[in-house]
Amino acid sequence: MGKFFTCFLFVGTMLFFSTSLNAQNVELSFNPSSVTIDPGDTTTLSVLGENFTGVTGFSGTITWDPSTLNYLGVPPLTINLSGLTLNETMVASGILIFGWFDFGAGVMLDNMTPVFEVQFEGASSGMTTVQFSEMPAPTTIVQGITEYTPVSTGSLVTVTGTPPPPPPPGSNFAYDCDDFTDVAFYSSFDTVATGEQACLSIAVCNFNQITSFGFTLDFDEALLQFDSVTNFNLPQLSASNFGTTLADSGYVTVGWFEEMGNGVDIVDTSTIFDICFTAIGAGGSMDSLFINGEKTAFEAADTSLMQVPVESGPGYVVITGDTGPAVTLFATNETINAGGNVCVDIKCKNFVDMISMGFTMEWEEAIIDYDTILDPNNFFYGTIGGSTNTSAPLVDTGALTVTWLAQGNVPVTLMDSTTLFQVCYDAVGMPNEMSPVQFTSSLVSIDASQDDGMGMPVAVPLATVDGSVTIDPDSNPDGFVFNLSDTTGCEGDTVTIYYIATGFTNVATMAFQINWDTSQLSWIGIHSIILPPIFSPN
Questions:
Q1: pTM to 2 decimals?
Q2: Which of 56, 199, 204, 497 is the most exposed place for a label (fewest CB within 10 A)?
């Protein structure tokens, strides 16, 4: 990205020449010109242009104090220059470089129309000016054949106060919608012991005629291990709306869009989903769950398709107990084609000075069939000395047992996210079916021991996070897929559900049953049959 901007600026220098400012030159400013926020709060600054007419090039640098503000992103819906390119490699140092060029007659924007917007989060108390800079890439405007440095004014951002303290254990504190003036997303609080599960509810305020939103759930992965999202209470919101690939780094993203564009109203303080974690930090520690734009821009839009201001309220998990960080095992979540083979990784965290452990693993044998165990890092069988019971009578019922004792009782320490071993399965279920891969105590109890520093084993909590195997809903081993269309209707409307076949080749017979909720739908009939007349619905 850096090379792109260097080349862009060099070409601009060769093709254009500087002129003195005149009344028609573009003037730039940030709006609002000053704002005060608390740590953890977000603010959106609009880049405004005056006399933005016939502009064919716009590039430069925006700077701020990174100890005061965290850069969250440039929401795509706010960009009014098609093809604007961002270089975000130096935002941790308070530097954002941007570049745009138009090969036509130039672009005109009405005075004080946002060219784009930049979102920040308060990091710590202090003051900083968000402004255009000449380093490392000078800020320039190109109008026709004229290139110049525009007059610009920045925005003074004051971050004051401290984040709200965590609620005391057992308190009934909760946010109130009087705390917010804009569309707001906020989290609940929980208090759990090390190794236990904490579920935080994400609720909303002022959620009126909203058609889309997106944000990042930001937490400390050293204290909380992501488990799942659940309890969806918003139309068209499901687990597929969440990005969990960065969960091991402390980020879960969400993006939601109301397909009909009609907008959704939600009663204030209503929960739209829950996010669940296993507390793996030491007793006495606490972690905040921030709702921000760290990985996905924090934004929302209404039926006008325009962005609306957003706010957030962080949640907290208070971890109790006298133990150190929990030794944690977690299984990965995998997706597989119908009839395929997949391996679930069993990984660890806080695996320090370990002496022994044991547990049972269980799954739905009608959906996934046990294949084998792999030891890719030569840890479990090679140097650690684990043993498993994978006899046919056991795995055929969807279970296996694991026991492990460090060779010679020599304590073992492994890096976080090390794969201990893999359990491999064949998919025998149908598309869209899911089997959990669970840690249980049904046959061998979940337990562990750690060296006490004096050569003696001492029992320690063993936290576990279940995984899963999902059979891809779009896969089919035989190449034949039957899909039902979605539709929306009001009371009294006639709606049609289409049965769509893919891979319908050399089919001799077919039979199936159609089910629906009779309290919601009344049967009318079948039409548009393209199969031979022998097809007869009953």
A1: 0.55
A2: 497
